[in-house]
Write a structure and sequence with these properties.
The structure is a homodimer of 513-residue chains. With 513 residues, the first copy, chain A, is an alpha/beta fold. Chain A is built from 16 helices and 14 strands.
């Protein structure tokens, strides 16, 4: 997905259905800052939605130190009409029964504003049939997501015979704006693209269990220790291209095409889901899950997905690229909100004269065996604040690309309190001094929730000509900003910890007993 | 995989075939410290093997800061007999043609030692047929790996009619010892388990392209932005269990079983690979790959796999668990090699009186926009050395579990040189002083390749009763070790950087122009 493709955040969405998919949609939209109104006739609909929201918040807190936008309100309402009134997008996620969906979509489209997109989450029913009674069928489209909706970016878009091209473009813009990756299915077909592939694998898996070749756990192991790892980054075609070596796809097909004639799948039939097969599936699946509840398994799945997405983001590839774009969007939204009114960095000064340039959520992977944030992550958070300071003075990545950069040469860090996973930490920053080639920075790391001071850090940075590797004077523009910031902060008292040294003299050669 | 299952590192393996799979096996075994002798009649066999070795080294350098064991030698030999002589395991990876494999396996088994396991990498040919002319068919087994063999842990084991149970157990122990995850296929069946699943999905994917429903890139996107992410951690059964909600597999099947009757896959036939379909596949695959060569795509794939495995290791789940076990094995091997001869930590002292407890390879994700290692990663490497020091004095994780731990309260870090991705860094450590509740540590971070001093770091640690959160005396045992180490290092000169402070006085309020 290119950032150039249009995005458009819906102001309000109306959701119909609060099952696994509907709850996931509620979380996906709310976390992106969209107001959600949801209807489901089930008495416990609110519980499922709130559980999905809690899982989604937890997952995104773990996935990204960037703060999400202000969360959209989620309101459980009492009728279809109440859910869709004033919505820009209606998303129906009822059970996979055609007649049920046709009636529900008719009712919703009659009550929704004329401009609203009417979308269904169906995994594979044909949109031309589902649109039978829709009011304004040109605005109807399939928007098929994948569980968990708040983490997996894929959403398949498929129009029916009467769906307009504008509807598909507008729906794609809505989904992109909430961090998803739309895939337009150009031909209306049962199962679209993804579910045809999933069903082929799933039906083969059922045959393996039905024929007693493998247990459900063995089938799963055959996926997750092998091809499943590849499929998280590359699909089956690009993967096989690589198996063919340098000669490309034609060579691969010449080499492996003949195996298509081998009896390597059970393609000619679908297993009958009789009592015996059903009992076997249930028994083996229970054994596989062991003592874990579905909620625990969901947490494990989400944690693994977060870790996989985190890794792919680091590579800037596949679904990781989609996550990185979501973060850029969130950062931009936060920067817009904090934009200095007079266009100078002085506006970044808080009323107390401190700079507040960075905050972060402690990630689960930052915890060590003592159960709290490991020491180098303290430096990571304050170093990110140093990076924000460098951007503020006009010496960030673009400046570095021009052949100059400030390098940290010395750090003095004091650890004052233990931070735990999920803690939100905020940094305040002071410029203590500078000359043409250096500046002296002091950060305090706070935990706003209880006002605790977590750490202080003092840094000396030197301005370097990166072509020669030698210290060199900074540009006039950067020195101007430093001078103004220094003047602004000159009245603040010198921090007690500044200029301190580690006093180990009394310990040296001590006889301790 | 439980660590309790037997492992047994083969001393030497004989490999037959140097294609994508054979080269991958060479890298997998060599990196684990196994000697490899390989035969392939192709004149450029050595090139492919060396390229695979280079990719494998790069991938594992990125995946793990733990140093791999001493690499096993890889020798390209001139005959089957030369490859298998004196081997504990013969691994055949010739093209997927039954007659070719039968002849090759007959020749290899006649020349191999009687105790050698004879394994084939076939993706789906039946072992009872491949064993037709094997000398000692009880020792013949399928060991089917997945590309890239040096990263993906799965290996399917399948015996033929005459294969002994001991052979399967021994082969599993060999594969586990080189960091793989054996899956025993209990019934001999074409395609085993994994390739039946892969082929079902692959044949459906070919239909989608043959019917012009989707391009190869759209098929791949439908996988990697959706279900593929899940499949890297959980297989299809556990994934669907979660889609059913709290009521388990029976509820899921009741809800989704009826969709088995929907025409959601193209199961009844296999597409004919005619010229037109072949041309379309080639054209679309070329477009998907764009300007990237296969070597570049392989690097991208490996980097993504490394990132995914890294993430799953953090969660301790699935393939990440297998990686963690490999690292534990490597750490244990390194510790065995460095085991103190007199049973005391004094043996950890190098001849110069310094402690050498930790080294690390700079990971690609540690680089910032300046193109070198970002500042907090310096602290990560020396903090890992502090952890190694804590383990040395008997105050590591087990000690912390008992309610006491040393916490770093103050750090002074000087950055002296820029580290780059792939640099190997080594830490030397000195105990500068201690009393009952504190110790004072000094690390130097070196780059052995050029002898550069990269950083120094000075730390004060306090011993804490983690129940009360207060400083408390360390145990007698820990204090004994500290006293002995202090005595050993007392003659070393005090480092010039110890006790220094950041001198910002001259910059304060300076008028810089």
């Amino acid at each position: 997905m290119s950032t150039a493709e249009p995005e458009s955040l819906p102001r309000r969405v109306g959701l119909l259905g609060a099952g696994v998919i509907g709850g996931g949609w509620a979380a996906r939209f709310a976390l992106a800052g969209v107001e959600v109104r949801l209807f489901d006739p089930a008495p416990d609909a609110a519980d499922g939605v709130h559980a999905a929201l809690a899982r989604a918040r937890r997952a995104w807190d773990r996935l990204s130190p960037v703060a999400a936008p202000h969360e959209g309100a989620v309101t459980i309402v009492e009728s279809v009409a109440d859910a869709v009134a004033d919505a820009d997008l209606v998303q129906e996620s009822a059970p996979e029964r055609e007649a049920l969906k046709v009636g529900l979509l008719a009712e919703a489209s009659a009550a929704a504003p004329a401009h609203a997109i009417i979308a269904t989450s169906t995994s594979g029913l044909l949109p031309s049939r589902l649109a039978a009674d829709v009011h304004g069928p040109e605005r109807f489209v399939v928007g098929h997501p994948f569980n968990p909706v708040y983490l997996l970016p894929l959403v398949e878009l498929c129009g029916g015979e009467r769906t307009s091209a504008e509807t598909i473009a507008q729906a794609a813009a809505f989904y992109r704006a909430v961090g998803m990756r739309p895939l337009v299915v150009r031909h209306e077909i049962d199962g679209f693209i993804a579910d045809r592939l999933l069903e082929a694998l799933w039906r083969e898996a059922l045959w393996l269990v039905a024929d007693d070749i493998a247990t459900v756990e063995e089938v799963d192991d055959a996926i997750r220790f092998g091809a499943g790892l590849r499929w998280s980054a590359m699909g089956t075609f690009l993967t096989y291209r690589l198996a063919g070596g340098d000669a490309g796809m034609r060579h691969f097909m010449a080499q492996f095409g003949p195996t298509l004639q081998l009896p390597w799948t059970h393609l000619t039939d679908v297993p009958t889901l009789d009592d015996e097969l059903l009992a076997r599936l249930v028994r083996q699946s229970d054994a596989q899950a062991g003592e874990m509840t579905v909620a625990e398994l969901e947490e494990l799945r989400d944690d693994c997905l977060v870790a996989v997405l985190d890794g792919l983001r680091r590579e800037g590839y596949g679904a990781g690229e989609v996550v990185a774009e979501t973060e850029r969007r969130w950062r931009a939204a936060a920067a817009d909100g904090a934009a200095p009114s007079d266009g100078t960095p002085r506006a970044a000064l808080a009323a107390d004269g401190q700079l507040r340039l960075h905050d972060a959520v402690v990630q689960p992977g930052w915890i060590d065996y003592n159960g709290h944030m490991t020491e180098f992550r303290y430096l990571q958070v304050v170093a990110d604040a140093t990076d924000a300071f460098l951007s503020l003075i006009g010496a960030g990545p673009e400046y570095a690309a021009g052949g100059h950069s400030f390098f940290t040469v010395e750090t003095h860090l004091r650890h004052l309190a233990e931070a735990h996973a999920g803690d939100r930490l905020a940094v305040t920053t002071r410029l203590l001094g500078h000359d043409e080639r250096r500046f002296h920075l002091f950060h305090e790391l706070h935990r706003p929730a209880d006002g605790a001071m977590m750490a202080t850090s003092e840094h000396m940075l030197v301005h370097v000509d990166t072509n020669t590797g030698r210290a060199a004077p900074a540009t006039e523009a950067v020195l101007d900003v430093l001078a103004r910031l220094a003047a602004d902060q000159r009245e603040l008292p010198i921090p007690e910890a500044a200029g301190r040294r580690i006093d180990g003299d009394r310990l040296r050669g001590a006889e301790c007993r």
